[in-house]
Amino acid sequence: MKKRTIIVIGASTGGLDALKKLIGALPPDLAASVFVVWHIAPSGRGIVPDVLGRVTTIPVTNAYNGQLIQTNHIYIAPPDHHLLLEDGYVRVSRGPKENRFRPAIDPLFRSAAYIYGNQVIGVVLTGALDDGTAGLWTIKQRGGLALVQDPAEAEVPSMPESAIREVAVDYVLPIARLATTLTRLVGEDVPEAAPVSPADDKRTAIEIGIAAEAKALDTPIFEFGQLSPFTCPECHGVLTVLKEGTLSRFRCHTGHAYSADTLLASLTEAVEDRLYDAIRGMAESVMLMNHIGDHYAEANQPRQAAFYFQRAKEAEQRIDLVRRVALSQQTLSQENIDQPEPVADSPPAS
């Protein structure tokens, strides 16, 4: 009978320390292959293998395209590349970003579930927003197990909280207990998994293909959702809404993918950018009108000069209005929306 031999781990903000604790607590003879995505800047150096290699004797390497999957080995997604699993080997790609990241957690989880089904254990650690939730849902759908770091322990609890809220997770544990639980689960037999519908199977395969650099325009991803009124913050293409259980996700025709929470954060960030772009354009018009006014003043045409100086002054007032709006603009996500507004202390009774 099959065993659970595939462990996929996703982490973001605060994730390096969490990974060091988790990997360092795993036994040196772990009978599983471990795959890790940690959100890192595209220009970041691939330091994770060196850092994790100091806390374990299990081999830790940056994954490369076509690398064979071996038991008792830890594979790290290199910067600016998605890490995907195929049957017996890994694929490293520069497919479109998901949830604003490459590497992203969802493509790894999704591909692992598609290939290895109920042999997969997914682990979501500390991080902002909700990358990993949709992938963890797919792992559960295909008979795998879902483990989540206790949000109370996580440096940034948003990713664990999202997974707990949207997925029927199996374990919510602090790092120390996650390690012992993983060790125990790896040794257990895997029961038969429930079948997946052909439509879900096809959609998952298409999404993995997009992450693996297939042309999204050549895929029928639109068949699996409904066109939305929203546009992609990265390429401005129309977004299709995809449903998975209670989850709503979005994908554009060039392949970028967003959770609802990540899309909200991206759109509200874009509003601030556009407000400051408007301020820049208005400020340039003020400078130009003052320049023209100076020209008429030097030409001894005070009436025309006064007209342009007045219009410049009116534009400066409008700039102040837009600047106040920009300064009050906030990047929104479910985390800060759920936070109650601070309540002013009541004045003391007289």
TrEMBL record:
Cellular component GO terms held in the UniProt record: cytoplasm
GO biological process terms, semicolon-separated: chemotaxis
Enzyme Commission number(s): 3.1.1.61
Active-site residues from the entry: 12, 39, 131
TM regions (residue ranges): none
One GO MF term: phosphorelay response regulator activity
Alphabetized PANTHER family for the sequence: PROTEIN-GLUTAMATE METHYLESTERASE/PROTEIN-GLUTAMINE GLUTAMINASE (PTHR42872), PROTEIN-GLUTAMATE METHYLESTERASE_PROTEIN-GLUTAMINE GLUTAMINASE (PTHR42872:SF6)
Protein name: protein-glutamate methylesterase
Native source organism of the sequence: Fibrella aestuarina BUZ 2
Name of the gene this protein is made from: cheB
